[in-house]
Automatic annotation (TrEMBL):
Source taxon at top rank: Archaea
Segments of skewed composition (Polar residues): 1-18
Keyword Acyltransferase: no
Annotated GO MF terms: ATP binding; ATP hydrolysis activity; transmembrane transporter activity
Region Disordered, residue ranges: 1-21
This protein's GO CC annotations: membrane protein complex; plasma membrane
Keywords: ATP-binding, Nucleotide-binding, Transport
Presence of the UniProt keyword ATP-binding in the record: yes
Protein name: ABC transporter
Residue intervals of the ABC transporter domain: 26-250
CDD domains, sorted: ABC_MJ0796_LolCDE_FtsE (cd03255)
Signal peptide (from-to): none
């Protein structure tokens, strides 16, 4: 694996921060989760996570690595509040997601979590601007504010001249930048990214990683990947095997 070089973050007075200065944004405590084996006509289950514990601090990028089926995607779904584990707790800025109703978790996710998917998940009939603004529609933000916020973010990710383009008119790297802008549009505290460079060539992937590193400076970020170059931007890498944490290196 590539060497992991920690990024320097600062406190409000401009001094280099330490771990103690950065609050815990995400906390997994003894999380276990199982999936039922569908289509078999029996009660067998598959253990996706077993006694998983780790923290992610504000301003920290944590990478998740491990073979397919090791639990990476399950962790991302749990951080996002998309699933409730069978055992353990998951705290988002001190709020235990496992104690909330489905509606409460949805509200918390829409406000505090941004998601970057490997295959972009853009709506093909909507412009780049409309795709970015979509989470604000769900939040009831006025149309003028939505457009201004989406356009500003597209400018920030280098797509100011692609605002009205449809996803089919954009390159893979441009589509991923739209997806990143969409993840940022609600100004979330936490970003989760699933193989964010998996669909991109090496050069385009490098530019997306640079963008992710930049936006992660004041947010907590969890990035799942098989790619060493992607994991190299992390401050710390959590290695999973068969649903268990086997390495948690800083």
């Amino acid at each position: 694996m590539s060497t992991h070089l920690p990024r320097q973050t600062t406190t409000p007075d401009g001094q280099p921060s330490t771990d103690a200065d950065r609050r815990v944004a995400v906390r997994f405590s003894d999380v276990t989760h199982e999936y039922g084996s569908s289509g078999r006509g029996d009660d067998r289950t598959v253990t996706a996570l077993r006694d998983v514990s780790f923290d992610v601090r504000a301003g920290e990028i944590v990478g998740l690595e491990g073979p397919s089926g090791s639990g990476k995607s399950t962790i991302l779904h749990a951080v996002s509040g998309l699933l409730v584990p069978a055992e353990g707790s998951i705290e988002l800025h001190g709020t235990d997601l496992t104690a909330l109703s489905d509606a409460e978790r949805t509200r918390l996710r829409r406000r505090h979590v941004g998601i970057v998917f490997q295959r972009f998940h853009l709506l093909p009939s909507l412009s780049a601007r409309a795709n970015v603004a979509l989470p604000l529609v769900q939040a009831g933000v006025p149309r003028k504010t939505r457009r201004e916020r989406a356009e500003s973010l597209l400018e920030e990710v280098g797509l100011g001249d692609r605002i009205t383009h449809l996803p089919g008119e954009l390159s893979g790297g441009e589509r991923q930048r739209v997806a990143i802008a969409r993840a940022l549009v609600t100004d979330p505290d936490v970003i989760v990214a699933d193989e964010p460079t998996g669909e991109l060539d090496t050069a385009t992937g490098a530019s997306v990683l640079e963008l992710l590193t930049d936006i992660g400076r004041d947010r907590a970020m969890v990035v799942a990947s098989h790619d060493d170059e992607t994991l190299a931007v992390a401050d710390r890498v959590v290695t999973l095997r068969d649903g268990r944490v086997v390495v948690n290196e800083g």
